[in-house]
Design a protein that fits this description.
The chain is of the alpha/beta class and 299 residues long. Helices cover 43% and strands 15% of the residues. The chain has 2 domains: 253 residues, TIM Barrel (Alpha-Beta Barrel); 35 residues.
Length: 299
């Protein structure tokens, strides 16, 4: 069964979210990391009345008052990292209370270093069909800058996972480390491989975001096939959405860029499937998106 992420609702008040859910064919819901405490309370009460189960939670749930990135599992600062661990453990406990199967993890991004503008410049050059020499130069500069980030970030991720995996295993909750949109975000392909290798045999696995890896592929910084071939055997869940050139979190359909057939071989009966859409998408299109994913054999 395909779940719907609450990402499509944005900051819509909880009662209106429940009202909307009553109008569409959804029996599973993922709680997104942008939800306020009031939204979470209202959604939990409403989904129980509607008979909608919770598939997964996208860390942190609810979002902290000062924002998701106020504390990150990759943080080098110990106070911030320990707060991120505490918030993650709260999310894991809530997931267990709600009968969810997994928590999706954003590991974080570097502090005080802005590489996203470099990726945007690369993306713009590719889209404008700039000379290959210019594109290659921009790509090489981004890769070089990413490699200069301190190795302490990887150490922090490993230390954080060592703690939260204990809570997750005690609660029977799987943890899915998500592929990221920006090249500077953690983990990159190599770091993800290290994290999964270090926690072989644990509740920690891979969460594949199909739009994020498609964006990586567009930028010439990796490929969807590369991620699935390397980590597909550790797949906890997938975020399913289409892309239109550089815009992701779109309704899946025949006019999009995604080859959903790439994902199908890696899905098992236990793989959590979530359609994660932008708040700019129309709720009226949700059923058509799910129907398309079913036709592609992803349910």
């Amino acid at each position: 069964m395909i779940a719907l992420s609450t990402s499509i609702f944005g900051d819509t008040p909880g009662p209106k979210i429940i009202e909307a859910l009553g109008r569409i064919d959804i029996k599973l819901l993922e709680l997104n990391f942008t939800l306020s405490p009031d939204q979470v309370t209202d959604i939990i009460a409403g989904t129980r009345q509607l008979g909608i189960a919770i598939s997964s939670l996208h860390n942190f749930v609810p979002e902290p008052p000062d924002g998701e990135r106020t504390a990150m599992l990759s943080d080098i600062d110990e106070t911030s990292r320990r707060r991120a661990i505490s918030l993650t453990e709260d999310t894991i406990r809530l997931a267990a209370e709600l009968g969810a199967g997994a928590v999706v993890l954003h590991m974080g991004q570097p502090r005080g270093v802005e590489l996203n503008d470099m990726q945007r410049a690369l993306r713009k050059a590719i889209h404008a069909k700039a000379p290959e020499t210019e594109i290659s130069k921009l790509r090489a500069e981004l890769i070089s800058a990413r490699k200069r980030l301190p190795g302490a970030y990887l150490d922090s991720m490993l230390l954080s996972l060592e703690v939260i995996v204990v809570t997750a295993e005690r609660m029977g909750i799987k943890l899915g480390v998500e592929s990221r949109y920006f090249y500077s975000q953690f983990p990159d392909f190599e770091e993800l491989g290290i994290l999964l290798q270090e926690f072989t045999g644990s509740n920690i696995g891979y969460w594949h975001d199909c739009g994020h890896t498609q964006h990586t592929q567009f930028c010439g910084l990796g490929s969807t096939a590369e991620y699935l071939d390397a980590f597909g055997q550790r797949l906890v869940g997938v975020h399913l959405h289409d892309t239109h050139i550089w815009t992701d979190h779109q309704i899946p359909g025949p006019d999009g860029d995604l080859d959903f057939g790439q994902i199908k071989p890696y899905l098992t009966p236990d793989t959590i499937r979530v359609m994660e859409l932008s708040k700019k998408c129309s709720l009226d299109e949700v059923n058509s998106g799910i129907d398309y994913l079913r036709k592609m054999g992803l349910e």
